[in-house]
What we know:
alpha/beta; single chain; 8-stranded mixed β-sheet
Amino acid sequence: MRISEEVLHKANVLIEALPYIQRFNRKIIVVKYGGSAMIDEELKKNVIKDVTLLKLVGFKPIIVHGGGKEISKWVERSGMEPRFVNGLRVTDVETMKIAEMVLGRVGKELVTLVQSLGVKAISISGKDGELLEVTKKYSDGEDIGFVGEITNVNPKILYDLLEKDYLPIVCPIGLDENFQTYNINADDAACAIATAVHAEKLAFLTDIEGVYRDREDPSTLISELHVKEARELLAGGTIGGGMLPKLNNCIDAIENGVSRVHILDGRILHCLLLEIFTNKGIGTAILADDNVKFYNPEENK
């Protein structure tokens, strides 16, 4: 019997994935879920399928999700104008109420999608189990309302859920020492959680392909960066916009024990699987200076 090329290709894909499945079995991976992949329904379903597959093949995924665009929509519907200072949302009392409502609803929607695929999931906020403790955050000395800076992560609730075979889905809301509720940047929350649970991987789903040496030239996409190289890029002024704080978050995560951090284009179908289970990958991976790069064999000799 002649086996078709398509069937052989599927077999080769599975074989290519095998060493990665073996290497990361029972390891924690934190996925920061945001951008267009949260808005486009088809992308949303495929991201959740990816994370669910990771769970079913032995990973311990944790999703940390944002919801900025949805929050802005509901703020406008309430007759208010969304305000930002240095890229951070100004969060007054009413905006805080809307943010908590919207993020809670997003979390429950993701739980429904995960459970429809046969995996148990629970949506929690950083308030549950005192997961995320914060202080008031300022932007260059300017008061931006109820925006929190994470001071401590209590990961016990996450460990408990993982131990009971649940997939935790976390929204970035926290409490200060006076039990006041604060909104938290989702990238910051994902980085802090990944550090606290000693995650093997932290993956940021974004609306760009990864990190470029030249922002104007897509061919300069970097597959892997050591922390030292990432710092050189930051110092050279070639990184700007939303990538600047994201890359700083990546460096912080690596220096605090996370093994590898990935910046992926969430608009690409199955981007998580392609990055984690294939030899080449599709985004940018940031790793500690003493870690060997996977994708540059000449450099590793």
